[in-house]
Task: inverse folding
């Protein structure tokens, strides 16, 4: 049973087809997960199904029956949002509106964790972008009185991305008015690509605590990386098939400090097949064998 897993683990799952949110829960249960992450619509477009069609009540009921705690379910905001650059007030407003509508949608889905890429400065410089991002989030959260946390994701540092250094994440948090509505999502692939050493999870988490504060840590994206440490690339690999490696990722996933933090796999499909059931089994049973992927 999924509720007996030793860790909180799941993957990103689609919300497509006629079953919508209920389908996301069913896929996760089939994978043996006890949490999951979803997008309330396409991450790359604005198309959003009306809330009434999303089978939210049915999904919540199935979660209650199967002990997926909805408090651990994660939503990912669309990639189109960029609060880092405000040169075009049209684009900045668009990002703010899109984030506000996503926060509202999360609330209607009863989901309390919304992962957000902090943004890209596109030439403005990191310091200005940090102010813009915090300003945008403050505007969005101004009238929000329900329980939601916008979780700033640590980035690989591609292009002009903000948030590849923990100090940058901390600076954004410092400028947020409603500190109870802000959190952090760490992505192991992004951290590796940004240059962080994950080989000792306790040492990394101690550093995270010193710089940002563990109380803000709400989500872990558990991914291997195709690239070496510090490559600033952001190409996810299957668990154990990348440069971070199985041993380090498993130790990370099982670190007791992260006991109550959902671990979400965003690894790529392998030969066109979903790897999540296998990856969850490998981690839970501590039984890694790269040839298992070939049997998918
Ligand atoms: Zn992300």
Result:
């Amino acid at each position: 049973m999924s509720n007996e897993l030793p860790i909180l683990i799941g993957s990103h799952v689609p919300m497509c087809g006629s079953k919508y949110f209920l389908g996301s829960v069913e896929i996760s249960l089939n994978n043996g997960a006890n949490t999951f992450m979803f997008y309330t619509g396409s991450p790359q477009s604005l198309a959003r199904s009306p809330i009434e069609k999303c089978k939210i009540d049915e999904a919540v009921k199935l979660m209650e029956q199967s002990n997926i705690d909805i408090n651990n379910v994660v939503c990912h905001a669309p990639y189109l949002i960029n609060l880092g650059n405000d040169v075009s007030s049209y684009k900045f407003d668009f990002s703010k509106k899109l984030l506000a509508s996503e926060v509202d949608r999360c609330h209607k889905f009863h989901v309390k964790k919304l992962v957000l890429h902090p943004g890209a400065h596109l030439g403005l410089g990191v310091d200005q972008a940090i102010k813009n991002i915090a300003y945008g989030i403050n505007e969005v959260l101004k009238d929000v009185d329900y329980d939601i946390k916008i979780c700033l994701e640590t980035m690989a540092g591609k292009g002009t991305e903000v948030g590849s250094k923990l100090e940058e994440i901390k600076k954004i948090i410092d400028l947020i008015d409603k500190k109870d509505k802000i959190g952090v999502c760490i992505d192991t692939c992004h951290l590796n690509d940004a240059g962080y050493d994950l080989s000792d999870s306790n040492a990394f988490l101690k550093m995270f605590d010193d710089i940002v504060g563990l109380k803000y840590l709400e989500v872990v994206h558990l991914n291997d990386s195709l690239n070496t440490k510090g490559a600033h690339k952001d190409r996810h690999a299957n668990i154990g098939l990348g440069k971070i490696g199985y041993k380090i990722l498993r130790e990370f996933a099982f670190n007791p400090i992260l006991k109550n933090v959902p671990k979400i796999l965003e690894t790529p499909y392998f030969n066109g097949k979903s790897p999540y059931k296998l990856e969850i089994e490998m981690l839970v049973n501590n039984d890694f064998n790269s040839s298992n992927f070939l049997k998918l």
